[in-house]
């Protein structure tokens, strides 16, 4: 499993919060509500994944410390740009917490594009797109978003949690929430091999399946 070094992969300013967490394991300290899009090309190939992650109030408050907006209480995309850059640089080490498989084979992502933060009443929202290294066609794609160490809890929004963009008309999308029994079984399969599928966070991850006949 990924070691708990540098929890600065989101923002350096959160280090104080992380240190307070100490050695607490398998318990989330940051909460994210996610909405994602699977992007298709005109030829029906799958090109990438677009995310919008809404962070909880506490994290948002810590992250915004030290940023002085021109208008009080309103943060522009430009003012939040350094924060977005710090996040994306750090998230690389953790595969952006985004894992895609086709027929049991992992699909690799290229460097993120179109990333930025925006500030809304519910908290900071991180937007970014992960292109696949090479577009591909597949009858079924499985997508999961999770932190293997479960320091961050990801859950999908109730409203439009996942969408297909530009997909052929016959394609479908579904989300499978793990049952208590499934989570227990996956936790029991944990090992020290570094397999993210057998990590604590994976036990609670929603599984998105996009299928095209």
Notes on the structure:
By secondary structure, the chain is α+β, with helices and mostly antiparallel strands. It has one domain (7-211). It contains four helices and eleven strands; from the N terminus they run αββααββββββββαβ. The chain has helices at residues 15-21, 57-64, 81-91, 180-188; strands at 30-40, 46-55, 98-102, 105-107, 113-120, 123-136, 140-145, 152-156, 162-165, 172-176, 207-211. The strands form two sheets. Strands 1, 2, 5, 6, 8 and 9 form a six-stranded mixed β-sheet that branches. Strands 4-3-7-11-10 form a five-stranded antiparallel β-sheet, with no helix packed on it. A hairpin with a 2-residue loop joins strand 3 and strand 4 (105-107). It is globular. It starts with 14 loop residues before the first helix and ends with a strand.
Q: What brief labels describe this structure?
A:
five-stranded antiparallel β-sheet; disordered N terminus; alpha+beta
Number of domains: 1
Shape: globular
Strand pairing plus helix content: what structural class?
alpha+beta
Biggest β-sheet description: 6 strands, mixed
- Give the termini separation: 36 Å
Radius of gyration: 17 Å
- Percentage beta strand: 35-45%
Count of helical regions? 4
Which regions contain 5 or more consecutive residues with pLDDT less than 50? 1-24
Portion in helices:
10-25%
């Amino acid at each position: 499993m990924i070691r708990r070094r540098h929890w600065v992969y989101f923002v350096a300013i959160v280090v104080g919060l992380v240190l307070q967490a100490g050695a607490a394991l398998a318990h989330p300290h940051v909460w994210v509500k996610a909405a994602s899009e699977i992007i298709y090309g005109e030829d029906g190939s799958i090109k990438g994944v677009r995310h919008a992650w809404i962070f909880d109030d506490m994290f948002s408050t810590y992250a915004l410390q030290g940023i002085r907006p021109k208008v009080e209480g309103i943060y522009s995309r430009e003012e939040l740009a350094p924060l977005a850059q710090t996040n994306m640089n750090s998230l690389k080490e953790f595969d952006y917490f985004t894992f895609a498989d086709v027929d049991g084979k992992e699909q690799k992502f290229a460097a993120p594009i179109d990333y930025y933060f925006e500030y809304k009443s519910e908290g900071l929202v991180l937007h970014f797109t992960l292109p696949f290294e090479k577009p591909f066609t597949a009858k079924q794609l499985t997508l999961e978003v999770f932190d293997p160490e479960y320091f961050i809890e990801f859950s999908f929004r109730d409203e439009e949690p996942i969408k297909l963009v530009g997909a052929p008309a016959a394609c479908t999308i579904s989300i499978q929430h793990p049952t208590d029994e499934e989570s227990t079984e996956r936790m029991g399969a944990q090992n020290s091999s570094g397999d993210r599928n057998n990590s604590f966070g994976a036990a609670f991850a929603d599984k998105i399946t996009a299928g095209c006949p």
